[in-house]
Structure formats: structure tokens, C-alpha cells
Design a protein that fits this description.
The protein is built from eight helices and twelve strands. The protein has 264 residues and is α/β, with parallel strands linked by helices.
Length: 264
């Protein structure tokens, strides 16, 4: 069975949630980054694009008060089913329209969440509200994807990668990823294909998801954050927290502080 879902339907689909959680549910390499820079004393933290609650749960077990938001109801349902004490609070909410009356000591946008905001107006709206919701001297921690020069040099041609995941029932998921940059654009086109194989008494399944992400470079991101009232503290290029090197690293981990004044 072959299914093709476009970007406006991906995150509301239960099958995508299951595949997402299979890949990222136990991922923890980024947690030392957040724990290193969050306040040592328990505080109120907001996670943007929390998905199935991986980061929110981990930080809640450290004693922080977590609120996680996401647009995907299936992902939030999965997040709520996971046993965590204390449990984070979850809400279905657009990160460009944050509806809170309180402030947070820290706001987290993990695993390339902001890359999903492909329209400049939406990105500015999100950052303006993050600035507003941060307490004085609050901290904004985030991970971004930076396209590498080799991908950009392909000039629109697709680059192929694949991964294989084992499922608890003995079946396998083969994930194919095709990425390409759009000429004279800051967008990256992504096709994800999932092949479900070796399923006992069940037929094979094939799923395809297509979407776009924002592919700004390091300098462009810093310019945007500065315009929205944030001050760069630290920039890392990997989960070992090595200093970010442009044109070498594709992972960008940023520590931003809320600056004075209002976003432009």
C-alpha cells in the first residue's frame, strides 16, 4: 500500500507520529545542551514544537515546570500517554500564535522546529512572541539545521540518504530521505519515504511525506535574532558542544538571551 501525504497533512497523521516516535522517541544526544544552559533551580519552561514530548519529559524529571505545545494532535496524544512524574502540560497551539498570559524563564525550540517556519512573517511573529513571553534576562535555547555547501552545490538535484529502524515486533522500517535546495531560494525540499517490511501476517506499507524547511545560513539567522531583540551567548556545532564553524557544521545549537527593548 502506497500513501503520499503533503506537508499540510503530515503532522496530523497518526502513522507519521508512530514513525517519528520510532526514530526520535529515545533520542537523547541533545539533552546535555539544554541541561547545561537551563537555570539550575527549577523554573517554568516552554517547549515549542514538542512533538511526542521527548525533551519536555526529560526536563520535567529534572524538576522544571514544563509546558509543551505542538500543532499535531496525534503527537500530543502520544506525549500525554507517556508516564512522567511530574508530567508536562501539553497544548495544541501554533508557534506563530502563542496564547499565554504568563512568562517563562526559558523557552526551548528543539530539533529544527524553527526551520519549519518557511514564511518570513511567521518566523518574525514567532520570535516576537518568544521575546515577549520570556522573563527578563530569560534564555532561548534552540537547534537549527544549516544546509551544507555540498547540498547547495547540487543546484536543485536531490541527495539521497537512508536509515533502517528495528521495531519491537521484529519488523523493520526503511527510511529514505531526499533533500534538495531550490535555486535562488532559502528553502530546502525534503521527501521522506518509509517502507514497512517483514511484518508478520501484515502486508508491506509504503508512505511518502513531502515538506519544505527554511535553509538560512549562520549569519542570516544571527541577523534575524538580533533584529528580534535576542543576544547571542554561545553557538555550538554538534552535540559534543564544539564551537560552531560555518560551512563545516550542519547542526546549530544556539544560546540566546532576551535583550532590552522591543523586536523590530
Amino acid at each position: 500500500m502506497s500513501q503520499d501525504l503533503q506537508s499540510d497533512r503530515i503532522y496530523g497523521h497518526a502513522r507519521y507520529t508512530a514513525l517519528y516516535d520510532l526514530e526520535l522517541g529515545d533520542f537523547s544526544a541533545d539533552l546535555p545542551f539544554y541541561r547545561k544552559h537551563l537555570p539550575k533551580q527549577p523554573c517554568a519552561i516552554l517547549e515549542l514544537g514538542c512533538g511526542t514530548g521527548r525533551v519536555s519529559r526529560a526536563l520535567a524529571t529534572d524538576g522544571h515546570s514544563l509546558t509543551g505545545i505542538d500543532l499535531s494532535l496525534p503527537m500530543l496524544t502520544t506525549a500525554n500517554l507517556a508516564p512522567t512524574v511530574p508530567a508536562p502540560h501539553y497544548a495544541c497551539m501554533d508557534i506563530t500564535a502563542l496564547a499565554f498570559r504568563t512568562t517563562f524563564a526559558a523557552i526551548v525550540a528543539s530539533y529544527n522546529t524553527l526551520n519549519l517556519l518557511t514564511e518570513p512573517e511567521g518566523l518574525r511573529a514567532c520570535l516576537s512572541q518568544v521575546h515577549h513571553l520570556l522573563a527578563d534576562n530569560g534564555i532561548f535555547l534552540l537547534q537549527l539545521y544549516i544546509p551544507d555547501p555540498d547540498l547547495q552545490a547540487l543546484e536543485g538535484k536531490k541527495r539521497f540518504q537512508f536509515q533502517i529502524f528495528d521495531r519491537p515486533d521484529g519488523s523493520k522500517v526503511i527510511k529514505e530521505i531526499l533533500k534538495s535546495t531550490e535555486p535562488q531560494s532559502s528553502l530546502v525540499d525534503i521527501i521522506e519515504r518509509y517502507h514497512l517490511r517483514f511484518r508478520k501476517d501484515l502486508p508491506n506499507e509504503d508512505w511518502e511525506y513531502t515538506y519544505r524547511i527554511l535553509g538560512y545560513g549562520f549569519a542570516q539567522w544571527l541577523e534575524i535574532f538580533a533584529a528580534q531583540g535576542f543576544r547571542l551567548e554561545v553557538a555550538y556545532g554538534d552535540y559534543d558542544l564544539a564551537p560552531f564553524v560555518p560551512k563545516e557544521h550542519t547542526t546549530l545549537l544556539l544560546v540566546l538571551k532576551k535583550g532590552p527593548g522591543s523586536p523590530q
